[in-house]
Design brief:
Elements: H1 11-16, H2 23-30, E1 37-41, H3 48-64, E2 68-72, H4 79-86, E3 94-99, H5 100-108, E4 120-129, E5 131-135, H6 144-153, E6 159-162, H7 168-180, E7 185-188, H8 192-201, E8 206-210, H9 211-219, E9 224-228, E10 255-262, H10 267-281, H11 284-292, E11 296-297, H12 303-323
Parallel strand pairs: 1-2, 1-3, 6-7, 6-8
Antiparallel strand pairs: 3-10, 4-10, 4-11, 5-8, 5-9
Helix pairs in contact: 2-10, 3-10, 5-12, 7-12
């Protein structure tokens, strides 16, 4: 697990810069936090990002000495939560639990009211979540090759659920369709949790969703697992093949979750939150819980490392959206 070390001091900057511009920020950080922190979560209860937030929330509260309140604001591919967070005071008391869909939104959402890089400061990646291609047991397929055969036999007839238009769950299936030369129709829901519920209920036959959310339903046989989206099999479900080895070479589409703060948040506060998150992820119980749920703990060594990862993700999924012919809406 990555370890973070503070690489310098802001003391010299405090001396060199007017106190009102910089030292006041350090003074504010020294007393931070002195009231509850709100974490805006862009998924409905039961979605992958919600599960991550609820696992780390109690430990973060303990370390910071203030309650971290989970505030679910699902919808519009996570943009509702992101817009609220972008307009919040830049004081560390409102955080955004960001996820892979936030990196896909610039490619598929017209007139996006926020810019992920301009309006936010990265704090840290939290976990990488391998996704899982799952189907309702009523769909007559039990592996990836059978799904491809069915989709090719009925172009455009097969539907899949997604958290919303252009969400990670949507583009992951578009990547699958592009690599397999198939055509399937996306049925957007208001969040990954409701989408998963829709597949379990048989409203839509399949989807790609977080293993964290889907595996309990696979274990109780309410869903059939067809393949893992990561490059390697998950240690928590080693019997499930990757989509790449099951018949789609080159396929990879992991989900991820992290934390960001509104742009302008004092550096000292960002680093205090970063350190608290690393302490949380270094807790043996927290790590074991994530691993048990098929999630890989992956805290960033620095906030900048997380920011660089986001840039790579935006580039990748912009190309997938363009190749799939998805128009900004």
């Amino acid at each position: 697990m990555a370890e973070w070390k503070h690489s310098g001091s802001n003391l010299s900057l405090c001396i060199a810069m007017p106190a009102v511009l910089f030292c006041a920020g350090i003074a504010n950080a020294a007393g931070f936090p002195d009231r509850p922190i709100r974490m805006l979560v862009p998924s409905a209860p039961g979605g992958g990002t919600d599960n991550v937030a609820r696992i780390i929330g109690p430990k973060l509260s303990e370390i910071l000495g203030q309650q971290v309140i989970i505030d679910n604001r699902a919808g519009a591919g996570g943009s509702i939560a992101a817009q609220m967070a972008s307009k919040a005071p830049a004081n560390g008391y409102t955080l955004l639990a960001t996820f892979a869909t936030h990196a896909t939104n610039p490619a598929i959402m017209k007139d996006l009211s926020y810019d992920l890089e301009r309006d936010f400061l990265p704090i840290s990646l939290v976990v990488i979540l391998p996704n899982l291609l799952v189907a309702n047991p009523s769909l007559p397929v039990r592996n990836v090759r059978e799904l491809i055969k069915l989709a090719r036999a009925k172009p455009g007839a097969l539907q899949f659920a997604s958290g919303s238009y252009g969400a990670s769950s949507h583009l992951s299936m578009e990547l699958f369709a592009g690599l397999t030369n198939t055509k399937m129709i996306s049925v957007p829901f208001k969040g990954v949790g409701p989408a998963l519920t829709g597949v379990i209920a048989g409203e839509v036959p399949l989807m790609i969703g977080s293993m964290l959310s889907a595996m309990p339903h696979v274990r109780n046989r309410r869903l059939v697992a067809l393949g893992v989206t990561s490059a390697k099999r998950s240690s928590a479900a080693s019997d499930i093949p990757t989509i790449a080895e099951a018949g789609v070479p080159g396929y990879e589409a992991d989900n991820w979750s992290g934390l960001m703060a509104p742009a302008g948040t004092p550096r000292e506060i960002v680093m205090k939150l970063h350190t608290a998150l690393l302490q949380t992820m270094n807790d043996a119980e927290i790590s074991a819980r994530f691993i048990k749920e098929s999630a890989e703990p992956a805290p960033s060594r620095t906030p900048e490392e997380f920011g660089a990862m986001i840039k790579v993700e935006v580039t990748k999924w912009t190309k997938v959206a363009r190749d799939a012919g998805l128009k900004p809406q």
